């Protein structure tokens, strides 16, 4: 079994498409007997430390039996603490995104009982678990892939839902909570998905009101295009765009939207996974960065990967000098290489 250690690398991008100029720190960290750890999201807390959220498991558990964790690092990469959050009934769970309001962390994810349901974890600033609550509907299976703090200090949780049987298609799913994490409403975007799959992977507020959603809308069971949506405060769709990079290859190239950044100079920067299924052997995953103007037209795009290793950017933020920070996962394709979670800044 391949080990998957949490690997953190700090790099500085001097421009939006420039090469990395210097590395600040790199760590590879495992704790206890955990051999599979995935870092999916990162933020800074009031102490000025990095906090990484994701899921982890040890060899004694089945492959699907992950549990959420938060890992705190100093600004020099020193591990300060790591915290796992296990369900009282030992149900496995995962988180891919979390928020911080200055005194609490809100983790959005899903629990498997074995049916999947969205749940919200409230964690104090000292990383003590305060509450673990299921907020998804019990009438169908659903998972949370993204969480966003709203303008009224509540939260939006986005992901996908699918029927219990047969679970052969999904739709984007959105939940609204108040500031305490109590569910207010949910909505399903039935225009996307059926007969295949569609989901929300990131949610970001628009400074002018409303929210941007990004995900994917598939044309077959595993091939898809980038789905970008704008919604109002009540979750109503205002517009959507589909971005397709299957040039001359019909539906043999997949794009799965990853995250959205509202740029300081105007427009949006989105990232996506890109996988070419026509190539033989199949090429590693690439990350596409796409800059959109205010009218949602493509200004430029660029690809990131290596000849042998795939790179999946999960998050992008903008630096003070106008550059960009990419955080994500690196997937070595060599059979002798360990899989690693990688953070590139």
Keywords:
0% helix; mainly beta; Neuraminidase; five-stranded mixed beta sheet
Verbal overview:
The chain is mostly beta strands. It has a single domain (4-15, 22-237, 330-344), classed as Neuraminidase. Helices cover 0% and strands 59% of the residues. The protein is built from no helices and 25 strands. It has strands at residues 4-13, 20-29, 34-44, 50-58, 67-73, 79-84, 93-100, 104-112, 116-124, 129-134, 141-149, 155-162, 171-177, 183-188, 198-205, 211-218, 224-231, 237-243, 253-262, 268-276, 286-292, 298-304, 309-318, 324-332, 339-344. A hairpin with a 5-residue loop joins strand 13 and strand 14 (183-188). The protein is globular, with a radius of gyration of 19 Å. The model is unreliable at 10-23 and 335-345 (pLDDT under 50).
Number of domains in the coordinates?
1
CATH topology category name: Neuraminidase
Mass-distribution shape: globular
Provide the β-strand percentage band.
over 45%
Using the 3D structure, state the CATH architecture: 6 Propeller
**N/C terminus separation:** 29 Å
């Amino acid at each position: 079994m391949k080990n998957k250690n949490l690997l953190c690398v700090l790099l500085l991008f001097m421009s939006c498409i420039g090469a990395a100029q210097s590395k600040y720190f790199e760590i590879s960290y495992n704790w206890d007997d955990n051999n599979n750890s995935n870092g999916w999201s990162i933020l800074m807390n009031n102490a000025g430390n990095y906090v990484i959220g994701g899921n982890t498991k040890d060899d004694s558990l089945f492959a699907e039996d992950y549990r959420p964790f938060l890992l705190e690092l100093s600004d020099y990469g020193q591990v300060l603490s790591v915290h796992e959050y296990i369900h009282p009934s030992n149900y496995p769970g995962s988180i891919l995104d979390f928020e911080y309001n200055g005194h609490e962390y809100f983790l959005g994810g899903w629990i498997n009982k074995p049916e999947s349901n969205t749940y919200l974890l409230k964690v104090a600033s000292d990383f003590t678990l305060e509450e673990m609550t299921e907020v998804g509907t019990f009438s169908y299976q659903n998972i949370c892939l993204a969480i966003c703090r709203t303008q009224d200090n509540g939260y939006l949780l986005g992901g996908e839902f699918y029927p219990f049987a047969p679970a052969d298609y999904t739709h984007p799913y959105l939940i609204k909570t108040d500031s305490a994490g109590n569910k207010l409403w949910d909505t399903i975007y039935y225009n996307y998905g059926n007969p295949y799959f569609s989901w929300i992977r990131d949610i970001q507020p628009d400074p002018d009101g409303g929210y941007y959603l990004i995900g994917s809308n598939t044309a077959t069971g595993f091939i898809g295009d980038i789905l970008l949506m704008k919604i109002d405060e009540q979750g109503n769709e205002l517009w959507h765009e589909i971005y397709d990079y299957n040039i001359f290859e019909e539906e043999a190239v997949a794009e799965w939207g990853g995250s959205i950044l509202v740029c300081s100079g105007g427009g949006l920067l989105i990232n996506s996974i890109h996988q070419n299924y026509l190539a033989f052997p199949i090429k590693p995953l690439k990350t596409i960065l796409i800059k959109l103007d205010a009218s949602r037209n493509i200004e430029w795009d660029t690809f990131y990967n290596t000849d042998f290793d795939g790179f999946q950017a999960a998050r992008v933020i903008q630096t003070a000098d106008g550059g960009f920070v990419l955080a994500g996962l690196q997937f070595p394709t060599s059979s002798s290489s360990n899989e690693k979670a990688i953070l590139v800044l």
